[in-house]
Specification:
The protein is an alpha+beta fold. The protein contains two helices and twelve strands. A six-stranded mixed sheet has the order 3-6-7-8-9-10, with helices on both faces. The protein has a two-stranded antiparallel sheet with strand order 1-2.
């Protein structure tokens, strides 16, 4: 018996999801996941708390020059992804668009891994980010207390470093900041 033909998901399909779900469209398939766990949310919030003030707002001795957003909807051609954090150099960020999603690929993405999301983040989303020339990708794992730093080189992800525990890290594209990983974890 032949498989039924599935309709490709479109942006409007996201509106039918319950409020406690995060929806993404990958390769025409609507994928929904429950809101992230406490460890995941704390790590993402704390990462944003460390990076946003000096780079987005330029507070203190920070350089500014970025727009950094928590959980933005971003269109990568027909795919709609929702990374945990994403950043655009200020001059590349589209301030106004006639739709909710952002149509310009970011310069940096940080995905917070959890047992439920790690496979999708690595196998499905990383290749999409590479295809659309996102220059820097960080994978933050609060369970393992690790941060993996990737740089895009000739269309491929190159591992630039893995840091763990309470390591102090300076990583592209935010090398002006020494990030204390120990601040990101729930102890």
């Amino acid at each position: 018996m032949p498989e039924p033909v599935r309709k490709r998901a479109g942006y409007e399909d996201l509106f039918g999801l319950p409020e406690n779900m995060v929806g993404e469209i990958i390769d025409g398939e609507l994928l929904a996941a429950p809101r992230p766990s406490r460890k995941h949310t704390v790590a993402a919030s704390r990462m944003g708390g460390e990076i946003i003030p000096p780079f987005d707002f330029g507070r203190g001795d920070g350089p500014g020059g970025w727009v950094i957003i928590l959980e933005p909807e971003i269109a990568f051609a027909d795919d709609i992804l929702v990374p945990d954090l994403a950043g655009w150099k200020k001059e590349r960020f589209p301030v106004e668009e006639p739709h909710n999603w952002i149509s310009v690929a970011p310069d940096w993405v940080c995905e917070v891994l959890s047992p439920a999301s790690a496979r999708r983040d690595r196998a499905d989303k990383m290749p999409i980010y590479a295809r659309h020339r996102v220059g820097h990708l960080w994978l933050l794992d609060p369970g393992l207390q690790t941060l993996e730093i990737y740089a895009l080189e000739q269309g491929r992800w190159v591992l630039a470093g893995v840091h763990a525990g309470s390591a102090r890290v300076r990583a592209e594209p935010f090398t002006e900041l020494e990030l204390d990983l120990g601040l990101l974890w729930i102890e």
